[in-house]
Amino acid sequence: MKSLTTHFRQSSKIHIALICIFCIPHIAFAIEPIATIGQPLPEKHALLNNETILRVVPTHIQIVDFTTNEVMEEFGERTVYSDVVISPNTDHLAILNHSFDPKMTIVNIWDVNHQQLISQWKIASIIDDNDAAFSPTQPILATYLPSEIHFWNWKTGESVGKLPRENFPSLRSMVFTPDDEHLIVASQHNLELWNVETQILQGNFAEQNLDGIEDMALSPNGKMVAAFEYDSTLVHLWDVETRQKLWHRTSGIGRISNVVFSPDSQRLYVGTSTAGLHRSGATPYTGWDDKVRVWDVMSGEKIDTFSTDFRFLESIILSPNEKTAILEYWDGDVVWDIANNREHDVWADYVRNRFIYDVALSPDGKSLVTVSWSFIKTWDVTSQQMQALVPSEGYAFDGLAISPDNKTFAVGKDPWVELRDIQSGRVKIQFPHYVSGALEIAFSPSGKWLAVVNDWNDLLFLDTNNPDKIQKVNTKIENDSPDFQDIAFSENDKYLAASCRTGKNNTYKYWIALWKREHETFILQYVSQVPRIYSSPAFSIGGDGSIVLAAYGGREIHIWKVLLNGLQHLTAFDGDDPVQFSPDGRYLFANQDNNFQIWDWQRNRPVKHTPFPGISVLSKDGSVLLSPDRSGQYMVWDIKELLSFLPYPVEPKGKKYVTLGQIKKNQLLQNFPNPFNPETWIPFKLADKSDVTIRIYTPTGKLVRSLSPGIMSAGDYSSQAQAVHWDGHNDEGEAVSSGIYLYTINAGDFSATRKMLITK
């Protein structure tokens, strides 16, 4: 059964396409991301030894120093759809890259110690990581094909047999015994023991028809197997030789997420998680149970319990000496010192964690805030460093908005709303009102007002200058109480627009309601029926000075003129959320087919421009855009240059742009191709004539190659014909090994460094 992490990863794949739109002449210059925020999101860990970790990230494999969390080596290319299976002794792994038309899995077997590809072969079926298992002593990989378990020689890709049963219903996992004589197979309601050599079923484990097995673990000595059921608190232990139940225990009140034996097989570590449990209300949730419980295998007695501030525990990985453990959570990973019963380290610099509720950029594009149920993370965009990691302390975070002055952010901490410092995350104001969750929060342009939609879909107004004051909207639409959803203020705090719906039992009508501020109170002006709205609306000023409102709904982006007695529909065009006007109101920014797109909305046509990935968040001044990549990081795009070359110049709050073709600043760009084998090109841009030198280093700082193109004029050296070429050899003419390398440019006073990856 796939973990929640795996389901989330597969449901959040980003497909990058090129924009092909006819219209205004093409803007002929390239835009590169200026930075990347966060580390690649780990999918699983395995300990190679007490000092080194094998880490699986969405795009490749890393070898990491356990003490410093520094990446030592990187190898193995993964496709958008792939899984990874690691051998019991971690000497080898299989990268399973999937193809769906036709259905196929390309199996890549890697030698972990030497980071070398051993073999590559194909299976005419989709195989995921729960459908495969390595033999501990033989070059055998077992895979679950439709209804059958097959054995393959992973060196050659040849089939070497299969189990005779034609149907293994709802297979959950399988594991070889350490002596390689048996294979234990866990299906939905059963555990079976098969002889590998004779391929004969030797028997079932006692107590059949369990209520849906989730996963299992085999003790290192091969004598015991532990299993747990789906969404259950019970862990079961059997003797492998007799297949008799030894004991079962209730381990906490949360669902069991993972079980693992100690290296000497004497203890069983059981992780529990509160994933899926509901929030608390006015007090910390007494049912939080993200804990690790340790059981004595022989007696079945509980001997230890430990936990951290993190929530939603996914798995436990023990070091070979059992002195430390890696606890994998949705929001980060904790290195736990078992011997001293304390946290040793926290790895949480993942900007896109396993489940984020809200992401926001400050209006000036310099700060990023992410909110999950149990943690707030704040980031400095310029340095790409995480500034604050704030736990919910047993409550639940939800909702997010950053103030117009870029200094604070508002967040829901059920049942309250708080204002926090954007750098430290510390609370500046906690509004005293019982809000009961915050699905949506919006700051007014002055920063004085907060509009909040709570868990009951009520709309509330809070006054940041007078925290004791609250205005709750009490209105009916066609004699029905509306469920409010997305909200936005207009300039000067004059209006607030809120999308909402009425009806029930999937028979709904959709509306936009408009309030006008009268001194210190917001007065409902009218409601207009609209298509279903899926994004926060956006206000701007039309060419005739009227107020306009845009929102994504009914599979189109709609724009209305705000009149005294209702909304007048102006235009609609193909696009997707999020929706935002340029600072001067001339253009509309949104997504189209997973790419960023600009519309000249007053002329009802798209602007053809250099393509790059779709918006995740965009700063209010239209200067910085963040887009997600496959690795779980955010790419940072400086789009001021793009805006400066639009047919009608955008003047975002005093920023000055350069003329067409002028290089504004020195830049070292990402090498291409990357990863590569054996050659690559290193592109860059020069603002002034400079003497250029490019040096290539190992991650430890050892010089590999020095490339000196000499004195070069100001210009763009980003094409293959102009970029600096590297053939993958060192200064002695020897081909370098696969792995990660650093390349540095020195041009006058300018110096910059980037990473690149060789795969062989």
General description of the model:
The protein is mostly beta strands and 760 residues long. Helix content is 2%, strand content 49%. A hairpin with a 5-residue loop joins strand 54 and strand 55 (624-628). It is globular and about 85 Å long.
**Judging by the overall fold, what is the CATH architecture of the domain at 358-644?**
7 Propeller
Query: What's the alpha carbon Rg, rounded to whole Å?
Result: 29 Å
Output the structural class: mainly beta
> Per the principal axes of the C-alpha atoms, what is the gross shape?
globular
Largest sheet: 4 strands, antiparallel
CATH fold type of the domain at 358-644: Methylamine Dehydrogenase, Chain H
Strand content: over 45%
Distance between the termini: 33 Å
Mean pLDDT: 87
Assembly state of the chains shown: single chain
Number of DSSP strands?
A: 65
CATH superfamily of the domain at 358-644: YVTN repeat-like/Quinoprotein amine dehydrogenase
Number of helices: 2
The helical percent reads under 10%
Give, in spatial order, the strands making up the sheet with the most strands.
1-56-55-54
